[in-house]
Amino acid sequence: MQTPIYLDNSATTPVDPAVLDAMLPFLRGEFGNPASGTHAWGRNASRAVEQARAEVAKLVGAEPRDIVWTSGATESNNLAIKGAALAAQKRGKHLVTVQTEHKAVLDTMAWLEKQGFEVTYLAPQKNGLLDSETFRAALRPDTVLASVMLVNNEIGVIQDVAALGAICRANGTLFHVDAAQATGKVAIDLAQWPVDMLSLTAHKTYGPKGIGALYVRRSPQVRLDCQMHGGGHERGLRSGTLAAHQIVGMGTAFRIAGELMATEVPQLRALRDRFWAKLKDLPGVILNGDLEQRIANNLNISLNIPNCDSLVTTLSDIAVSSTSACSTGGVSHVLQALGSDAGVAGNSIRITVGRFNTAGEIDWAADYLRKKIEDCRAGRLQAA
Ligand SMILES: *Cc1c(COP(=O)(O)O)cnc(C)c1O
Question: What are residue 6's DSSP bridge partners?
Answer without folding.
Answer: 319
